[in-house]
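Late entry, 2-oxoglutaric acid complex.
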Amino acid sequence: MADEQWSVPKTVQELAAGVNELPSQYLLPEKKNRHGGRLLVAEEMLESIPVIDLSRLPAADEDDKLRAALQSWGLFLVTNHGIESSLMDDVMNASKEFFHQPLEEKQKCSNLVDGKHFQVEGYGNDQIKIQNQTLDWSDRLHLRVGPEKEINLANWPKQPESFRDVLQEYTSRSKRMKHIILGAMARLLELDEEYFISQFSERAPTTVRINHYVPCPRPDLVLGFKAHSDDGVLATLLVDNDVAALQVLRDGVWYDVPTNPRTLLVNVGDFMEIMSNGIFKSPVHRVVANAETERSSLAMFYGLDTEKEIGPAAHLLHENQPARYRKVKIKDYMAGFYEHFARGTRVLDTMKT
Ligand SMILES: O=C(O)CCC(=O)C(=O)O
Ligand SMILES: [Fe+2]
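Prediction complete; structure with ligand written out below:
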């Protein structure tokens, strides 16, 4: 584990305001920021990321589009998701307002207890898990938003005043959408429609990570968010503008994901890849930095109870289709998750048979 000074980096907002040269902790090793000889630049997409109209499911053509998206990209965009545009705007605006406040106000919900002991919940940077960890050019606010009885409002911002109410409203509206999507995913695999939904006990956590990407004078040398796949069953992403930033890896090639503020993005998470025996892909994605435009995103993660054990659904296994993942307890997955995340590797790969 790193020494104290290394483990308490400044926020990126502070750095961006005061430095001419990027600190070395943020610089990508040369081999990581090159891809096929090009710097962080995505390849042209030959097949676009599908936009699923949730109100049309289970129409056969919409089902086919969804199946193709889940098996290839592992992510898709959704319209008619039942969350009002005004609520999406409100939660995004409150999130941006939070990051625009003075540092002292934001640090009231710092993720460093007593200024040094890291906890996942709160405002700040990622935890430093390994020596020479490359840091991301972004700041985060990480909050547990469910189940209700496990919400710790002491970790939530008090300002802006609307923040708590709009985030709680957005969380409850998102839940309905999550159920529709999980029902459809089970149906596509010919599982009982409740199969995935029933994996969530009343202790299953829902968390939110609000990412704030500050313009970077050398976007060619850093990443806004390092390559990773999401933990949990499913993740949804809301963004504040359509600046090209999010990229997804498919068959070893990076592509830009065309996001925009009113269309939600849904990602398959690692737990879903395991339960679907690899039929649905949990995509590796990253965010590239930008020299001019500030960007914010709000990701919501649907996790499972740490005591729960998951494995490929029995119904999907037969002689010609053996289990591609071993059974794993969620807490064992989580125990390895952050270290792999810090290294830019995937704990999921250690669970393959
Ligand atoms: O900001 C984005 O576009 C992606 C963020 C993300 O991947 C995450 O929070 O897990
Ligand atoms: Fe992610």
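The chain has a mean pLDDT of 92. Will revisit in the morning.
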